[in-house]
Amino acid sequence: MIGFFIMMTDLNTNPSKEGVSTHAIKDVWAYNKGEYLGTYTLPATIPVLKEGKESIELIAGIEVNGISTTRAQYPFFLQVQEKISLTPKKFDTLRPTFQYQQSTQFPFIEDFDEGNGFFNLNRVESMNDPEVRYGEGAGYLHIPASSDTTYYFESKDPFNVPAEGAPVFLELDYKSDVDITAGLRLIRGNKSSDQYKLGLRDQDNWNKIYINYTPEITKSNANQVKILFKVRINQINEDAEVYVDNVKLVN
Question: Which pTM does this prediction carry?
Answer without folding.
Answer: 0.94
